[in-house]
Automatic annotation (TrEMBL):
Cofactor(s) the protein needs: Mg(2+)
Entry's EC annotation: 3.1.3.7
Entry protein name: 3'(2'),5'-bisphosphate nucleotidase CysQ
Residues holding substrate: E70, L92, D93, G94, T95, D218
Summary of the function given for this chain in its UniProt record: Converts adenosine-3',5'-bisphosphate (PAP) to AMP.
Keyword hit for Cell inner membrane: yes
Entry-linked InterPro entries: CysQ, CysQ/Inositol_MonoPase, Inositol_monoP_metal-BS, Inositol_monophosphatase-like, Inositol_monophosphatase_CS
Family statement: Belongs to the inositol monophosphatase superfamily. CysQ family.
Main location: membrane
Encoding gene (name): cysQ-2
Binding site for Mg(2+) 1: E70, D90, L92
Localization per Swiss-Prot or TrEMBL: Cell inner membrane
Topological relation to the membrane, as annotated: Peripheral membrane protein
Amino acid sequence: MTNFVSSDMQVRLIEGVRDAGEQVLKIYRGDFEVETKADESPLTEADMASHHALLALLEELTPDVPVLSEESGEIPFATRQQWQRYWLIDPLDGTKEFINKNGEFTLNVALVEASVPVFGIVHAPVLDTTWWGQQGLGAYKIEGGAKRAIQVRQLPDPETEAWKIVGSRRHGAAEFETFCAKLPRNERVSMGSSIKLCLVAEGSADLYPRLAPTSEWDTAAAQAVVTAAGGEVLDAHTLEPLRCNQQDSVLNPWFIVCGQRDERWEKALKEALPA
Ligand SMILES: Nc1ncnc2c1ncn2[C@@H]1O[C@H](COP(=O)(O)O)[C@@H](OP(=O)(O)O)[C@H]1O
Ligand SMILES: [Mg+2]
């Protein structure tokens, strides 16, 4: 099994992401301005502070590895296609949650190798919680200073326990409801940002159907955590794992995050999705 990130490097990365989170927290606790990007999505000084802090961290630790950030501007596919290994970051996922001050936003750093997110850190500064994982080496969570290994859970028997389905606060609500209505007994939980994937990774939720657009930087770090915890992030149509950097567009297909694959939800998915 390849060790993509040494344990020493891992410690420095986690510390660096948590330091960037401290900068974000200072802005979160004060008054900040909100700009609107060309695609109509919001941007705050915290997105940019985190972007610069994470770029500085990665350039210091791995000067030879290129970085693609949500805030770095477009890098042509012809260039990205040459990258065997690169960092893919979303400096602040859940900007609307940040603006609404509900704490459900994250800093996201993924290492992508041959299109597969093999290592990822997801940090939620307000929750004082960090999830990380590396392919083949397990997944972990630090919450309030306490570290523990995490793992996905098996889908429970719905006769005795409802399946927990996590969904976005803001996107794809109608598709989400249609999907959940086809499932056995379930309870729904709303959450912002990549925390949704981490809830599946840690076994607090069973499924996260994302039947709405996202970009690769929204999911790569948390996909690494989910897979290291024994789960999967699957294209909702092909049921193949999501891959990065395969085409000009950085948009993901609709996807499903699951713990262990199970024919019960696969059947529901086939019925719930438009042909
Ligand atoms: N039309 C669209 N195209 C691409 N991504 C979209 C999108 N609408 C929402 N998203 C992504 O969904 C993320 C938020 O999802 P959720 O509300 O479920 O947490 C946003 O992250 P950012 O906050 O980083 O912009 C954004 O990237
Ligand atoms: Mg995002």
